[in-house]
């Protein structure tokens, strides 16, 4: 990583584009390593090897950077699930639940970001930024809903309800499954309390299977 003393301002469009990408990658690395809560503009600048003041030439805030990462996460997750499901119309509830839960478990940064999106990221950016985010997310989820309808017995309204439930459950379950160091110590020292922890993918899979079973039964 370059030292701050070697920092050079980007002047050409290509250099500016690369600098913006470097800052985004720095935020991704930091969030993946230490969690979304630990990411600051200063840390992003240090990781990217630029002065802290340079970050604001490209992004208004850490919240904007993290919201863009969440936007990428929605697109990536939607594509992954859509690729898995195909369009057979014969996928059963447990298979659908596994596809949704397992693809989320494979994307820890996205799961962590889901906690922060509605809590603070959407609240701390401009109207134009949050509008662009919502447009991108709705597009990604519309594709995902279409793939669920094509692969299962669920209709469009049920598929939307399912995705809403998946997102709503993922954030708290992910945090519960990855407790703070103090909680990890507590569970180790007092095993009777360890049952309050959860195993993310299996727990989410069980809950989603039951939900999809109920939705499917209501169509009979």
From TrEMBL:
Keywords linked to the UniProt accession: DNA-binding
DNA-binding region: 40-59
An annotated Gene Ontology molecular function: transcription cis-regulatory region binding
Domain HTH tetR-type: from-to ranges: 17-77
Superkingdom of source: Bacteria
InterPro entries assigned to the protein according to its UniProt record, in alphabetical order: Homeodomain-like_sf, HTH-type_TetR-like_transc_reg, HTH_TetR, TetR_C_34
SUPFAM superfamilies cross-referenced by the UniProt entry: Homeodomain-like
UniProt-listed Pfam families: TetR_C_34, TetR_N
Keyword DNA-binding included in the entry's annotation: yes
Protein name: Transcriptional regulator
Organism: Planotetraspora mira
